């Protein structure tokens, strides 16, 4: 393998690594944007669908509301503590 070919392969590997970082950044940005949209549109019952479903040991800790463990805890939080019904009925509520 020539020196030029080795340099080109090295450059291509660096480009692939950089593109992977960009792709990951965009996926995180889209996830956060989706969360914000659901939250501000008061579609809280849909927020648990954004959490990792196959990752063991997930938990959620939101301010003074406590720690909610597992998907059942996450769903319980968004469907009870911050349920759509609870806050839509409150005059003047703002997220």
What does this protein structure show overall?
With 95 residues, this protein is mainly alpha-helical. The protein is 58% helix and 6% strand. The protein has three helices and two strands, in the order αββαα. A two-stranded antiparallel sheet has the order 1-2. Strand 1 and strand 2 (67-69) form a beta hairpin. The longest helix has 38 residues, at 3-40. The radius of gyration is 21 Å and the shape is elongated. The termini are far apart.
Keywords for this entry:
95 residues, mainly alpha, two-stranded antiparallel sheet, 3 helices, 2 strands, elongated
Produce a short descriptive summary:
With 95 residues, this protein is mostly helical.
Largest sheet: 2 strands, antiparallel
Inertia-based shape: elongated
Helix content: 55-70%
Terminal CA distance reads 61 Å
Low-confidence stretches: none
Number of strands: 2
Task: Spell the H/E element sequence.
Answer: HEEHH
Secondary-structure blueprint of this entry?
Blueprint: H1 3-40, E1 59-61, E2 67-69, H2 70-81, H3 84-88
Antiparallel strand pairs: 1-2
């Amino acid at each position: 393998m020539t020196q030029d070919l080795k340099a080109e392969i090295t450059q291509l590997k660096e480009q692939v690594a950089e593109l992977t970082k960009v792709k990951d950044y965009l996926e995180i940005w889209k996830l956060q944007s989706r969360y914000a949209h659901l939250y501000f549109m008061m579609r809280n019952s849909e927020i648990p669908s954004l959490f990792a479903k196959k990752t063991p040991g997930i938990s959620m800790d939101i301010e003074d509301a406590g720690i909610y463990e597992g998907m059942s805890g996450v769903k319980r939080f968004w469907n009870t503590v911050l349920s759509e019904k609870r806050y839509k009925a409150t005059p003047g509520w703002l997220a």
